[in-house]
Design a protein that fits this description.
The chain has helices at about 1-20, 55-60, 110-120, 160-170, 195-200, 215-225, 245-250, 275-290, 310, 315-320, 330-345, 375-380, 380-390, 400, 420-425, 430-435, 455-465, 465-475, 485-500; strands spanning about 30-40, 40-45, 65-70, 80-85, 90-95, 100-105, 130-140, 145-150, 175-180, 180, 185, 230-235, 295-300, 350-355, 370, 395, 440-450. The chain is an alpha/beta fold. The strands form 3 sheets. It has an 8-stranded parallel sheet. β10 (about 180) and β11 form a beta hairpin. The longest helix is centred in the N-terminal third of the chain and has 18 residues, at about 1-20. Mean pLDDT is about 95; it is low at about 1-20. Belongs to the glycosyl hydrolase 20 family.
Length: about 525
């Protein structure tokens, strides 16, 4: 009996250690070993570059500012950083044994992700840090792993943008899609046209709807993200969702008249495609955008652009006739092609929402990428049409990657626009499409749109814990855990994420209290 009790205690102890080492997203290969490496206040470290950001990230987030002594010999260090060019660009290995911890990668990206894993692996107070013995080998399933934040409808402070860049890097995402222009706000300073931000940044009437980002602030955000292996992809929406811009420059619309800014949804007031001066204006805007953002990708929107004004506009109708276009949808394709070709001259790719490929028409250039979103309205039509035309695709179906959809009805979100962690984990159309392993499918994005006035204080409870499930799908290459076990792991990790400053909302519809307030 005593012997059995000892074995049971040993098993419970080992289970506690392994439970404590839950990492999201899950590493692809983990070989656990018995024992743990304990590092005390004075830690020795070997690296070829003591100034690298990943070293300072390890020191601040894992070693908790313990003192570090640099070693010239790898074999004598507690922590050793080693380069291995044979590893994938974002892959890494971690080996923790009684002698030392060795972190191996082919470059900065892999080292960053190794640190993000170690942040969740370490246990114990500062001054006595413990790391369970293990060999970890890891690399991503998807090339494109993205979080999108809508700063167009709602303005967020720069510190808030950085908070969610930190989150994206922690969850091993490598793109941050920044939605910067919208009917309710133009958030990017354009030096050539200052009225865009000065007027267009203040057209909203609700809380946190006034503001824009100076070019200096944008450069600061880009640099912050780059250190964390995040590429910022800016979105300048055109021709639709343009009411804020048209408030500042009414001449960019079809009729040159003042526009009403909708507090919800969108209107017929879009950029005029028939006037050459409008195209010149928007190309000048994109010139400044490209000067600011080093991203190979610039998002040009293209969704929800009603054509009522174009159908009445003499300039638009003349353009359709002169180019022998079929209709106003064809005119949008032509307009989109002009903007994409302008980006192509600068060596950039143009991303468009899937609306542009619902119908065939004027050909888009070969630097076009399609972002599939409207599963609710059109199922996988945009995905299939894009693949048919050999356009690369980013999957971000509103079922189930739009995290503004709450778990239960709220304001403009009826029951059919709700989902929970289980829905996305088991039935995400974007994940199913990515699992087809079509080389044209780049990967997945998830989004937080700020419709219906989602202010800063509301963001976390919409993202967490559902975004953990999406990160798992983007990264992990192995056989998914069954949902019950996955959810158990999420609950075990909840306190850790909250310690990092991210507040959890409910995970399952069945858990939402009747009086729960999403705002």
């Amino acid at each position: 009996m005593k012997h059995r009790l000892s074995i049971l205690l040993l098993l419970v102890s080992y289970a506690a250690i392994t439970c404590g080492q839950i990492v999201f997203p899950s590493p692809n290969q983990v070989e656990m070993k018995k024992g743990k490496l304990t590092l005390r206040k004075n830690i020795s470290m070997y690296t070829a570059d003591t100034t690298a950001f990943y070293v300072s990230l390890l020191r601040s987030e894992v070693l908790r500012n313990s003192s570090v002594k640099w070693q010239s010999n790898a074999s004598t260090a507690h922590i050793c950083w080693m380069n291995d060019p044979s590893l994938p660009p974002e892959g890494y290995k971690i080996s923790i044994n009684p002698k030392q911890m060795t972190i191996t990668a082919s470059g900065e990206r892999g080292f960053i992700y190794a640190v993000q894993t170690l942040r969740q692996w370490v246990s114990g107070p500062a001054g006595k840090l413990t790391f369970a013995y293990a060999d970890i080998t890891d690399s991503p399933s998807m090339q494109w792993r993205c979080f999108m934040l809508d700063s167009g409808r709602q303005y967020q402070r720069v510190s808030t943008i950085k908070k969610y860049i930190d989150m994206a890097s922690l969850l091993k995402m490598n793109y941050f899609h920044w939605h910067l222009t919208e009917g309710l706000g133009w958030r990017i300073e354009i030096k050539r046209y200052p009225r865009l931000a000065q007027i267009g940044g203040s057209v909203g009437k609700a809380e946190e709807q006034h503001g824009f980002y100076t070019q200096e602030e944008i450069r600061e955000v880009i640099s912050y993200a780059s250190q964390r292996n995040i590429t910022i992809v800016p979105e300048i929406d055109m021709p639709g969702h343009a009411e804020a811009a048209l408030s500042a420059h009414s001449e960019l619309g079809c009729f040159g008249l003042p526009v009403e800014v909708p507090q919800h949804g969108f209107t017929q007031n879009i950029f005029c495609a028939g006037k050459d001066e409008v195209l010149t204006f928007l190309k000048n805007v994109l010139d400044e955008v490209c000067e600011l953002f080093p991203s190979p990708y610039i998002h040009l929107g293209g969704d929800e652009a009603p054509k009522g004004n174009w159908n009445k506009c003499e300039d638009c109708q003349k353009r359709i006739a002169a180019l022998n276009l079929k209709d106003s949808h064809d005119l949008q394709l032509w307009f989109s092609a002009q903007m994409a070709n302008h980006l192509k001259q600068k060596g950039r790719k143009a991303i468009f929402w899937g609306d542009v490929v619902y119908q065939d028409g004027y050909p888009l250039p070969d630097n076009t990428v399609i972002q599939w979103w409207n599963y609710r309205g059109h199922k996988d039509l945009a995905l299939r049409n894009a693949l048919k035309h050999n356009y690369p695709v980013i999957c971000s179906s509103n079922y189930y990657t739009y995290l503004n959809f709450p778990l239960t009805p709220w304001r403009g979100y009826a029951k059919e626009r709700t989902f929970d962690l289980k829905d996305l984990y088991l039935n995400n159309p974007s994940n199913k499409a990515c699992n087809e392993k079509n080389p044209l499918i780049l990967g997945m994005s998830c989004a937080l749109w700020t419709d219906d006035v989602v202010t800063e204080r509301m963001i976390d409870q919409r993202l967490f814990p559902r975004i953990i499930g999406l990160a798992e799908q983007m990264w992990y290459q192995g056989e998914p855990l069954d949902f019950t076990r996955f959810y158990e792991h999420v609950l075990q990790k909840k306190e850790w994420f909250e310690q990092q400053g991210y507040e959890f909302g409910p995970a399952l519809k069945s858990e939402v209290p009747q009086d729960y307030k999403w705002d």
